Amino acid sequence: MKRYPLLIQLIVYIFLLVLLLLGFVGSLYYQTSSGTIRQLTERTTRNSMEQSGQFIASYLQKLKQTTSTLSKEETIRKFAQNQESSETSVQALMKTIIETDPDLVSAVLVTKDGRVVSTDSQISMQTSSDMMNEKWYQEAVHTRAMPVLTPARKESLSSEKEKWVVSVTQEVVDEAGQNLGVLRLDIGYNSLKAYLDQLQLGKKGFSFIVNSQHEFVYHPKKSVYSSSQEMKAMQPYISVKDGYADQKQAFVYQIDIPDSDWTLIGVASLEQLQMLQSQMLYSFVGMGVLALLMCLIGIWFVLRLWIKPLQNLQAVILKIGSGESNLRAEEKGSPELVDLAQQFNKMLDQIEQLMEAVKVEEQNVRRYELRALSAQINPHFLYNTLDTIVWMAEFNDSKRVVELTKSLARYFRLALNQGHEQIALKDEIDHVRQYLFIQKQRYGDKLLYEIEEDESIADYKLPKLVLQPLVENAIYHGIKEIDRPGIIRVTSTVEEGKLVLSIYDNGRGFDLLDSSEKTLLRLGGVGLKNVDQRLRLQFGEDYHMEIRSEQDIFTLIKIYLPLSNDK
Asked: CA of 369: how far to CAs of 360, 365, 424, 541, 545, in Å?
């Protein structure tokens, strides 16, 4: 898991705290404001719709009375009965009615015998048979002398553009109640539109009127009358009596117009609520940016008073961890940080004292262990060598006696090393060379040896008597047990940044069934274990030994040491 600096964590935590606080307050304000706006919208819409319903009801009642009164006029009846009244008198009467009500645009009388009288010359040109087949005429006849309200319809006239009207129709009957024709008064579409558009329903709000068959009497979009798709889009509003539609984005309220089959439907938009949402979003963003700036300023002061000393302490700890043990923390900042720095410095002093004591103790222990391990070197070699010198002297081989004696003397001078535990690699190899020369005198042609030295590492320091026990082990456990000439090869080289010492023999060997280091050391005897312990004491994990062997073929021991030896 990724870890972030303390400064970043503080900024994030404070910013989140401020943001949560703003979110809580903003959410509370938003819920309260939204509820208030919704209630206000509902109340305003209901009041406006009820007032509009009362107005339309009163207006329709007046139109119905006008239509009913006009249909019962003697002039109208006599003309319909084809009696004394003339077309001119009927037309003059209807024009008088039209002029008294500016919302009326035309009046039409269609008699049973096919005569047409209208205040609009264009309507008078239409045939009575066409009119008598229209829905408004048929409904008036079927209603039996009662006023009938029609849905919105358009008049297709040849002399002018299409115009939309809403009509009140009533059957004209004689004294016996027999049909004489139908009277129609046309209400101007623009009159309804001008009034309903004044309703306070929001910028995107609108109102419309439908009858009991859900036919549109009025709608601000005239395309609704002819488009099935747009009619379908209005159905969600028609199905809601008093509530929300369009995913609660619009409030719908319906009111039935008294004494008619009309229903006034108002759809109020909630753009005020949407404006509030936008304002809240901008407020959140602005206050969030402001909060971030305040956090940054606050953290800057905190950094100067608190974080900076912590960063300095962290830097000191990292440098001490990398090896600069002489550094100490600065004792400044808040009282808590000063106490922390003092205790930290005190701890460093104690650790330094302990490390120095451990170092001295470790050196003493290592010195005693090296001495004890050196004393374990097999002394029987001296006895065997002296026996060989005596044997040579008995055969009057004085030259070989001198050479062997000189070699033995040099061997022990190098082994003793003036009491020093460390020896140069070149002297250690020379010590092995003297040892092999002495053994060569004992074994003759059965023992051959080769020594290869890397002069670049001749002065490398290592514990004395490291190679000789391994060479001794190769002779007594390898070559001595075979019936063929044996060879021992000692080499020193540098491989991949390591000093490598190798001892090879073509002696008896053994099967490496178990490659564990402990098992191999056990097979090599005391000499091999002695060397391993001494080298591990001095070099630790930087040292390791590798053993390879095959039965009756060879044995190879490699010692890997660090090139830089400062221990």
From this structure: 14, 6, 20, 18, 20
Q: What is the CATH architecture of 72-191?
A: 2-Layer Sandwich (3.30)
Tokens read off for 515: 């490659």
* Residue 269, phi then psi, degrees to nearest 5: -85, 155
Q: Look at residue 97 in the predicted model and tell me its pLDDT.
A: 87
Confidence of residue 567 (pLDDT cuts 50, 70, 90): low
Helix pair angle (380-394, 398-416), 10° resolution = 160
Name the β-bridge partners of 554: 550
Is 269 strand, coil or helix?
A: strand
Q: Residues with Cβ < 8 Å from 294, sequence gap 6 or more?
A: 18
pLDDT of res. 448 = 93
Nearest Cα to Cα of residue 273 among 22, 35, 28 = 35
Query: Which has more confidence, 554 or 314?
Result: 554
What pLDDT shows up at residue 541? 86
How far the first Cα of the chain sits from its last, in Å, is: 39
Q: What is the pLDDT of residue 226?
A: 73
* Nearest Cα to Cα of residue 466 among 516, 505, 431, 508: 431
Return the half-sphere exposure (C-beta side, CA atoms, 13 A cut-off) of residue 519.
8
Angle at the Cα of 166 from the Cα atoms of 161 and 172, rounded to 5 degrees: 115
Q: Name residue, tokens 């930087």.
A: 542
DSSP 29-59: HHHHHHHHHHHHHHHHHHHHHHHHHHHHHHH
Q: Provide DSSP, 126-159.
A: S-HHHHHTSHHHHHHHHH-SS-EE---EEE--SS
**Predicted pLDDT at 371:** 53
Q: What gap in Å lies between CA 281 and CA 289, rounded to an integer?
A: 12
CATH number belonging to domain 376-562:
3.30.565.10
Ranked by mean pLDDT, the top range of 254-263, 337-346, 552-561 is 552-561
| Predicted confidence band of residue 158 (pLDDT cuts 50, 70, 90) | very low
Encoding tokens for residue 72?
Answer: 């019962």
Return the domain boundaries, the chain: 72-191, 328-371, 376-562
50-104 pLDDT tens trace: 888 888 888 788 888 888 888 888 888 888 887 666 888 888 888 888 888 888 8
- Give the closest residue to 273 by CA, choosing from 253, 248, 254: 248
* pLDDT at residue 558, as a whole number: 94
Report d(CA 282, CA 279) in Å as an integer.
Answer: 5
Q: Enter the pTM of the model.
A: 0.46
What is the pLDDT, as a whole number, of residue 566? Answer: 60
